[in-house]
Amino acid sequence: MNRYKMLAAALGVALSPLALAHVTLDQPTGQADSYHKLTFRVGHGCDGSPTKSLTVMLPESVTGAKPMPKAGWKIITVKGKLSVPQESHGKAITTAVREVTWTGGPLADEHFDEFVVQAKLPVEPGKVYFKVVQHCVKGSMAWDELPGEAGAKLLAPAPILTIVPAAGPAHAH
């Protein structure tokens, strides 16, 4: 194999994760019962089309969500009733932000960006899934597949956050 073919093969291997990029969380773990910065990374558009909006659906166990503003993007939040009230600062919380949508951009397919929400994580350790819908100038993509069969490859996986046990009292927000 000549030098150019070896270089091309090495570049293909190095860049292959970019071709498979999905909407992911920058930090895949968070501490139970703490406020956490959820950074959703968008790695590409929809089949070459620029991203014009991103909607993140928050599981009921994640509360106190506050999205971070982004230059050139408008934020829309949707609140919903909680099936089990939560306590925050001595008050019962019965509703919480369930969806955050950023609209604007557009974010070109050849670029990536990050969309940030601060939120309170559940008390119990385990896995939390965030369903995301990416709308593009042409088309959309739902990143909402949840694990099923062991070892089954997901084409559009929902971002996953693994909640680890709290190391002690955590109240910073």
Domain module count: 1
Q: What's the CATH class, please?
A: Mainly Beta
- Strand order within the widest sheet? 6-7-4-10-11
Strand composition percent: over 45%
Distance, first to last CA: 56 Å
For CATH, the homologous superfamily is named as Uncharacterised protein YcnI-like PF07987, DUF1775
Written overview of the protein:
There is one protein chain. The strands form 3 sheets. The protein has a 5-stranded antiparallel beta sheet with strand order 6-7-4-10-11, with no helix packed on it. The chain has a 4-stranded antiparallel beta sheet with strand order 1-3-8-5, with no helix packed on it. It has a 3-stranded mixed beta sheet with strand order 2-12-9, with no helix packed on it. It has one helix spanning 3-19; strands at 23-25, 29-31, 35-42, 51-57, 63-67, 73-88, 91-107, 113-120, 126-129, 131-136, 140-143, 160-164. The chain contains 1 helix and 12 strands; from the N terminus they run αββββββββββββ. The longest helix has 17 residues, at 3-19. The chain is mainly beta and 173 residues long. 21% of the residues are buried. Helix content is 10%, strand content 50%. The model is unreliable at 1-20 (pLDDT under 50).
Q: What are the SSEs and their pairings?
A:
Blueprint: H1 3-19, E1 23-25, E2 29-31, E3 35-42, E4 51-57, E5 63-67, E6 73-88, E7 91-107, E8 113-120, E9 126-129, E10 131-136, E11 140-143, E12 160-164
Parallel strand pairs: 2-12
Antiparallel strand pairs: 1-3, 3-8, 4-7, 4-10, 5-8, 6-7, 9-12, 10-11
Give a quick set of tags describing it.
single chain, 173 residues, four-stranded antiparallel sheet, 12 strands, disordered N terminus
